[in-house]
Amino acid sequence: MAKPNKKKNSIVEPRVNDEIRGYDTARVIYSDSENGFNEIMPMGEIFAFAESVELDVIEVNPKMSPPIVKIADYSKYLFDLKKSLKNRNKNNISLKEVQLSTNISEHDLNTKENKAREFIKKGDKVKVVLTMRGRELSRRDMSKKCVFQFLEDLSDIAVPETMPRDEGNKCIVILKKK
C-alpha cells in the first residue's frame, strides 16, 4: 500500500491494481476516444477489462459506497495530478509590492500607479511601501504626501485595506480591489 506523503503540497498516491482489495463491486470510470463508461461492475470484471486494454486500475475514492476506481495509465494519472497541484499553487501569490520614495518624480509615480492598477485588476492585493531616510523621518506628514496621492489616483478601482501605518522608517498601506 502506498504510504501517505506528509508534505504540505504533495499528493497521496492512490492504490493501484493488486493493492486494491476488499471490494466485491466498484464504480468504474473509463474514458477512451472510441468508447467510455461509468458503471458499477464486479472487481473481477474490472481487472479483466483493464488487463485487456493494457491499463491500470486506480482507486480514486475508497470512501464512497461503492468505491470509485478508474481505468487509466498510472504514470499519466500521477503526472496529471502533480500538474494540477502545481497550477493550483500558482494562484496563491496574491500580495504584490510597490515601493515609493518621498521625492519621487511625477512620471515615476504614474508608472508605479499603472503597475499597481494591473495587479489590482488581476485580483491581487498591493502593498505600498514608502521608505523615508534622514530628514524625511522628522517630517513624516510632508513625506506621506506621495502615498496619499497614490491612494487618491487608485481610488477608482481600489480601497485601502488598512490605513497608512508607520513601521520604523517605512509607511505601509495595503490596497485591495473595490
Structure, explained:
The structure is a single chain. The chain contains 6 helices and 9 strands. By secondary structure, it is an alpha+beta fold. The protein has 2 domains: 17-90, Translation initiation factor 3 (IF-3), N-terminal domain (Ubiquitin-like (UB roll)); 95-177, Translation initiation factor 3 (IF-3), C-terminal domain (Translation Initiation Factor IF3), CATH 3.30.110. Strands 5, 6, 7, 8 and 9 form a 5-stranded mixed beta sheet that branches. A hairpin with a 2-residue loop joins strand 8 and strand 9 (170-177). The longest helix is centred in the middle third of the chain and has 17 residues, at 74-90. It is rod-shaped, with a radius of gyration of 28 Å. The model has no long low-confidence stretch (mean pLDDT 84).
